[in-house]
Amino acid sequence: MKTSDISEFDRYLFHQGTNYHAYEMLGAHFVEENGKKGVRFAVWAPHAKSISVVGDFNAWDDRVNTMNRLEDGEIWSVFIENVQEGAVYKYAIEPQWGGPRIMKADPYGFYAEKKPETASRVYDMSHYDWQDGDWLEKKRKESSYGRPMLTYEVHAGSWRRNGEGEYLSYRELADQLISYAKEMNYTHIEFMPLCEHPFDGSWGYQATGYFAVTSRYGEPDDFRYLVDKAHQNGIAVIMDWVPGHFCKDEQGLRHFDGQTLYESDNEQRAENWEWGTTNFDYGRTEVQSFLISNAMFWFEEFHIDGLRIDAVANMLYLNYGRKEGEWQPNKYGDTGNLEAMDFLRKLNEAIFQYHPQALMIAEESTAWPLISKPVYMGGMGFNYKWNMGWMNDMLKYMSLDPIYRKWNHDKVTFSFMYAFSENFVLPLSHDEVVHGKCSLISKMPGDYWQKFAGLRTFFGYWMAHPGKKLLFMGGEFGQFIEWNYDDSLDWHLVEQYDMHTKMQAYSKALNKFYCDNKAFWQVDFDWNGFQWIDCNDNENSIVSFVRKAEDSNDFIIAVCNFTPEVRQNYRIGVPSKGHYVEVFNSDDEAFGGSGVLNNGEIISQDVPWHNREQSITITVPPLATVYLRLKGQSGAGTSFPEASAEVDARGHEESDSASKAEAAEVKKTSVKKTAAKKTATKTAAKKTTAKAAAKPAAKKTAAKAEAEATAKKTTAKAKTTAKKTAVKAETKTAAKKTAAKAEPKTTAKKATAKAATKTTAAKKTAAKKTAAAEKEAEKPAVKKTTTRKTAATKTSAAKKTTKSTTTKTTAKKKAAGND
């Protein structure tokens, strides 16, 4: 790291708020003066009467190494000979009014004592040898907007612990975390704050040492090794950064030189009563130099790729989290913090000036406009913003029982009213799995099987939705308990419980599919990358849409079913004529699903549907997301069979066309299969639990909850659900058989009437076709009915076989229910 002189020019820039490398001037630096080697200490403390450097090198005697006030009257400095690396020190500051000295850690210190100790440590930042040159060169040539961004959010202290329950070090994380993230196909890792902080329970969001990577997990060079290792494995590193507020601990920034310095003189602006912290004074130019230099420090000295700026709304709004009388409006009588606005614009312009490929991600929870637009366009200058609205709507929607979802369909579709107003990241973050909010899988309603199915469906929809992606650790394998910052994730779930193993396999395959297919990430921020097929089927709680790459011929169709009902012969409009194939299905048995797949090729028909000339009919699995692709499509990425091969996915093995067609016909006429599959899955899970119970009891409460949840799979509620599903299936099957036996004209009318009850859109279409049929029977208006009649005639033999199969399946299901 470069060390600069404390020149008049550097001091001038610092006081102007434009010294963006103030850490090269202030803090503790190894230097040589007059042929002697030692450490130069420098600190900004304009209100101090006197300052001394105290530490283990001078027995903490404040009379030994007194500092000199420089010409500007605000910065103090002293050179101390023979101070060794690792030496512990603080600044002993005498306030203007005299009295006891205030003992403060170095605001620009590069290393700190391990908690509960609070002093700074001298550290040489110049001896790490970086090996990530190829990564940096590659990054210079690419734009993040048109690249996949699948971020794994991590709390370093609780992702995993060693056998004694202690933290993993930065170097241990480099070996274990990086290899795991790479295996799971994540492209980015986002660390929750790693600045030095005194209290574990703050998760790092209340810092004392902004330039000191926390010593909990090792030294600064150890963290450099972690970032270096990530880059060598093709993974970017983002860090949470908190320029909004700081903690009140006595060794920190609050009242640093005896008076307000880093915080505002106005108590209403300085105090953050909701969080028990202190807000920065963004109008003070030296504070601007401090914060912008700190952001620059992480990019330049640790090679991180991005910052996620926490609590931006707390910075922008004067009344954020405040009651009436606890805040004052700005000079225009409004709620905006004018100084914070100017600071954020200045921050972002500075970072992009030095690091054009940086990721500056705002966690901004309101509708403040143009957060992720450039400053020259009137924006705040970030290049990404967390989509908190989407997150809140979808988590609320997914927590509803499926029977109520059709009345809340807008929660799935509303995000597209503003989806392209910002460069959005779709976060499923740590904030949503703590403080009684439940883990992601615990938010899902239904029995044990339905919880996993619901989470798979949600992830499939999330992955196909425009925007970059972020998932908090543990969500990928369905951890049941809430996140605990003081304990490891429940990795034993993946080792001992089959459904968690399959959930992890699903996440891995889904992540790979996302990374391999440009249609999911190349055009994330405008309408050219997205088209609705049908957003109005609230009755069935199904949405269908198209994601497109820059090449319009490279597209993927996504169909999401948010109910546990199988939808047979479900028709959707498609962009082009041709043969379609199912390339991903969250209901695959390899992922814990019921195995309702669309095998073989699906040939489009000249049946106008959803305002498109071509359409196809598919079987939509229960609580599932399905991806379809046009066969032979240009720009196609890796297909589902290749992606799932890494996790031993089953159900998509190659077979001859005849067997695939036969399997497809049987599935269309056997709705009961889903209920039977669910029962079989539950029975298998029960046996797995029983086997696991023979082993020593797991040390965590979560294991008990897991076993209890598994044991409840065959309760009366589950049986009732299965029976209802079976009754519905039998009713539908009987209706189809009766229709097949009826006379042609009667069949046409009944089939049309039946189709009319499925969705509002289908109802209108069927009514028009029926009216047209009465006027002119041979017109194409009855094409839908004719098609069904033809299919019914061609598959009469298959239906006879299905009748026998259905009877056997019912018997098996009853036997399973009795078990």
CATH superfamily of the domain at 149-386: Glycosidases
Helices, by number, come to 24
Q: How big a fraction of the residues is strand?
A: 15-25%
Unreliable residue stretches: 636-819
Distance between the termini: 69 Å
CATH architecture of the domain at 149-386: Alpha-Beta Barrel
CATH domain class name of the domain at 149-386: Alpha Beta
Supply Rg.
Answer: 31 Å
Q: What percent of the residues sit in helical stretches (DSSP H or I)?
A: 25-40%
How are the strands ordered across the major sheet? 10-11-14-18-19-20-21-22
Number of strands: 30
Sheet bearing the most strands, described?
8 strands, parallel, barrel
Question: Which terms summarize this structure?
Answer:
single chain, about 800 residues, alpha/beta, Immunoglobulin-like, TIM Barrel, 24 helices, about 35% helix, disordered C terminus
Describe this protein's structure:
With 819 residues, this protein is α/β, with parallel strands linked by helices. Among the domains are: 8-122, Immunoglobulin-like (Sandwich), CATH 2.60.40.10; 149-386, TIM Barrel, CATH 3.20.20.80; 400-422 and 441-470 and 487-630, Immunoglobulin-like (Sandwich), CATH 2.60.40.1180. Helices cover 36% and strands 18% of the residues. It is built from 24 helices and 30 strands. An 8-stranded parallel β-barrel has the order 10-11-14-18-19-20-21-22. The protein has a 6-stranded antiparallel sheet with strand order 23-24-25-30-27-28. Strand 24 and strand 25 form a beta hairpin. Helix 13 (448-464) runs parallel beside helix 15 (498-516) and helix 18 runs antiparallel to helix 20. The radius of gyration is 31 Å and the shape is elongated. 49% of the residues are buried. Residues 636-819 have low confidence and may be disordered.
